[in-house]
Amino acid sequence: MNYLMVLLMQQQENGGGFHTLIFLLLIIVVFYMFFIRPQMKKSKDLRRYRENLKKGDKIITIGGIHGKIVEMQEKNVTIEVEGQNRLKIEKSAIAMDGPSETLDSKRQ
Fold first, then answer.
1. pTM > 0.85: yes or no
2. Do 58 and 43 fall into the same domain?
3. Do 29 and 67 belong to one domain?
């Protein structure tokens, strides 16, 4: 611990504290711009996509199940999969990377 204090005092005497602070702030800004901000944007887009789903939309779940929405509730969705089987899933289990025709209709 004493070694750290001596090193810190030496940097302050040499004016290294200011450069260290600037470098630390630069690292924080870069981390925010390249990691935190894109993740927040992706999360917001996914939430918006799930809120705009409606009956008849084709989706893919995060488990890879393809289906068509037949019933919507507040937190759950009933989808119809091949063979007229119905599955009740959470909205949070819907992946944003759905079939291209579903995504194209959302963009227009």
1. no
2. no
3. no
Length of the chain measured in residues: 108
Q: Compute the average pLDDT of residues 93-101.
A: 72
> Contact, 37 vs 28, CB < 8 A?
no
Total domains present in the chain: 2
Q: Domain range for residue 36?
A: 2-48
Structure tokens belonging to residue 59: 């989706």
Residue 64 and residue 103 in one domain: yes
Residue ranges with strand state E in the chain:
58-60, 66-72, 76-81, 85-90
Q: What is the pLDDT of residues 21-36, one digit of tens each?
A: 888 899 999 999 999 9
